Amino acid sequence: xxxxxxxxxxxxxxxxxxxxxxxxxxxxxxxxxxxxxxxxxxxxxxxxxxxxxxxxxxxxxxxxxxxxxxxxxxxxxxxxxxxxxxxxxxxxxxxxxxxxxxxxxxxxxxxxxxxxxxxxxxxxxxxxxxxxxxxxxxxxxxxxxxxxxxxxxxxxxxxxxxxxxxxxxxxxxxxxxxxxxxxxxxxxxxxxxxxxxx
Length: 198
What we know:
By secondary structure, the protein is α+β, with helices and mostly antiparallel strands.
């Protein structure tokens, strides 16, 4: 018993052990927080907020079939648990002068974690890139890029993308049109219909 206790005590003197322990403890704690079980009302609230982030709390409560104060408490709890990450307005890209959307497939010369993270950090500084996904397969990253026109996109490629460290090749796919844009995830509640408006 003493030897086990001494081993534990010795382990806590090791900085590397402490770093690993707190890293995994933090990740486990975050997962436990996010595993709050959702009931039907929570799912209704999430679905309506995902469809319309500007919905009033009164209307949100009415559609969920509860009163306004507990509805607001549920929304706050969902935010704190990490189910709701934020709210934003959908801006018309063409109205803002961005007429071209391109999906760029990026291959890096190195797949070492430090090089992957360095590229992600660099991409975060480019406002033209609206989405960045690391991929499994032949390509390393998929970027969604917006530009005023094709020439502006080509300038982005030649002045920022291809000269970035570790980037070995870029393949561009021009979006012809967008037929569906559904943010978030499916939240399907069988047999539910919103109560009629008064």
